[in-house]
Amino acid sequence: RAKIMSYNSVDDAVQLLKRSRNIVVLTGAGISTSLGIPDFRSKETGLYSQLEKLGLGINDPQEVFNIDVFRDDPTIFYTVAKDILPATKKFSPTHAFIAMLQNQGKLLTNYSQNIDNIEANAGILPEKLVQCHGSFATASCQRCGHKVRGDTIFEDIKAGKIPRCGRCITALKSKGIGPLKRKRSNNSASKRSRRNFEDFDDDDDDDGVYNIPQAGVMKPDITFFGEPLPDEFSKRLVKHDRNLVDLVIVIGTSLKVAPVSEVVPFLPSHIPQIYISRTPVSHINFDIDLLGDCDVVVAELCRRAGWDLDHPMVPPN
Ligand code: OAD
Ligand code: ZN
């Protein structure tokens, strides 16, 4: 990448922050680890190394989020899902930093790969946020496409059940497959439907609700490997942000997953780029690398800029 200007110091980063008006902030799991939410790829603490220890019968822990694996056997994902549901109203100093940029009128877009929904807790506005890998806000039936509010399946997820589609179940019941027909009198039609029902309700509770295999499995609308990203991602990046961006800040992501990893090379090469993370990356050459705990780095940037980062976790100066 041909660099027109040369930036390298922390103070250069502060000057860039001060003068920029259209900042793209690209975030990953590293901005939520201070809240006790594991990232994916950190050795020992990351979700993938935790999953390896569980022995889920898969070769690669990333397969938990693989759409073909899910279609084949949703129990693998649902074994893990209860532990990754959005569960906190807190937010980190780094989320507060992004919200502060927004409130100063400097945030063009926060592209987040995170599915923890913590951006909202910090007050980052939906119109400033692209959840590149979707979220738990909605869930869809894998058979008929029926979409519901995400939290309607949380109870099943927490109980270790595979959530099934209400619309599919209703359709099956009307065809005589399901619990409604069971209590009917003993004519031949009801015998047939009872047989159907018993074939399909093959779990222990015999309620015919959660385990009717014909009813589609519900999946939270988080983007699995093998699924396309939400349309908004490339639409906004290509049609809107690419022409407006004046600074790129990447925080807490290993940039290992495409197409989000391609955002930085896609943006005009003369736009300055800052990388904030514990672990350096070698496949993208940033103008400024600020290596360390992102909450500490953003607090120091604010201190030098003379900005008040209002967050209980930031130690007072
Ligand atoms: P990763 O776990 O790959 O990367 C997180 C990065 O943040 C690592 O480089 C860590 O060193 C760094 N990090 C962790 N805690 C930090 C802290 N407190 N301060 C600074 N840096 C810190 O997570 P992502 O890059 O977000 O996708 O992963 C990308 C995608 O891979 C996820 O969205 C998920 C996953 O598979 C899907 O599931 C589709
Ligand atoms: Zn359905």
Automatic annotation (TrEMBL):
UniProt entry tagged with the keyword Transferase: yes
Highest taxon of source: Eukaryota
Protein name: Deacetylase sirtuin-type domain-containing protein
UniProt keyword Cell membrane, yes or no: no
Renumbered residue ranges of the record's region Disordered: 178-207
Cofactor(s), by name: Zn(2+)
Binding site for Zn(2+): C141, C144, C165, C168
A GO CC annotation given for this chain: nucleus
Domain Deacetylase sirtuin-type: 3-308
GO MF entry, a single one: NAD+ binding
Active site: H133 (proton acceptor)
Family recorded in the similarity comment: Belongs to the sirtuin family. Class I subfamily.
Keywords: Metal-binding, NAD, Transferase, Zinc
Residues of the full protein shown: 185 to 501 of 562
Organism in which the protein naturally occurs: Xylaria grammica
